[in-house]
Amino acid sequence: MMYLMLTLGSALVFFNPLANFDSASGGLGFSSFSGGGGVKSGMMTGLEGTAESSYPKSPPLRHTLHYRQFSSSGASLTQTAVGLDYLTQPFKRPLLISYGFELSSGDLRSTSGNSVSSMDRLGWGLRAEGRHYFEYEGHLLYASARSTLQFASYPTSAGSASGTGLAISASLGYSF
């Protein structure tokens, strides 16, 4: 399932003739999840990489492809997500606000020594992002903060674990 999401996201971001691949970012994130199925609930920290393409014509839409790797003392989560966002610039400042949804494929595993592993499963999420652009030595950079309410269920060998929770990430990116 993860490879299907990666293929779909790559097609929308990199090979879409109607959209322009225009930015990439990397950052740190936090993700909470509710437990079950041999995995304790808690907070995970990790890294995220993102590639984006936007449509030059209206409506102002953006496709995103995310790869996330979160871990905690009790579990690890690997996610690939494809998103669609609506973009708005409410102020006459270099500030962009977006909101949208994402489909994700994730694999939740226990790291606490027991043999719990999940199957790769689909999930979805609702998200909002604030982004501030700035120029550095002739290059357009941005800092962003994103919050995502994620919904997923991971059937494991010891029952079902819920990946439902809030994820928050902060990124630095480069606009092409």
SS-derived structural category: mainly beta
CATH topology: Porin
SSE order in H/E notation? HEEEEEEEEE
CATH class annotation? Mainly Beta
Q: Spatial order of the strands in the main sheet?
A: 1-2-3-4-5-6-7-9
> Main β-sheet: number of strands, strand sense, barrel status?
8 strands, antiparallel, barrel
Supply the number of structural domains. Answer: 1
Mind explaining what this structure looks like?
This protein has 176 residues and is mainly β. The chain has a single domain, classed as Porin, CATH 2.40.160.20. It is 7% helix and 66% strand. It has one helix at 2-13, and strands spanning 20-33, 42-54, 61-71, 75-88, 95-110, 121-136, 139-156, 159-162, 165-175. Strands 1-2-3-4-5-6-7-9 form an 8-stranded antiparallel beta barrel. A hairpin with a 2-residue loop joins strand 7 (139-156) and strand 8. The protein is elongated, with a radius of gyration of 17 Å. It starts with a helix and ends with a strand.
How do the helices and strands line up, and which of them pair or pack?
Layout: H1 2-13, E1 20-33, E2 42-54, E3 61-71, E4 75-88, E5 95-110, E6 121-136, E7 139-156, E8 159-162, E9 165-175
Antiparallel strand pairs: 1-2, 1-9, 2-3, 3-4, 4-5, 5-6, 6-7, 7-8, 7-9
Quick structural summary:
The chain is mostly beta strands. It has a single domain (2-175), classed as Porin (Beta Barrel), CATH 2.40.160. 7% of the residues lie in helices and 66% in strands.
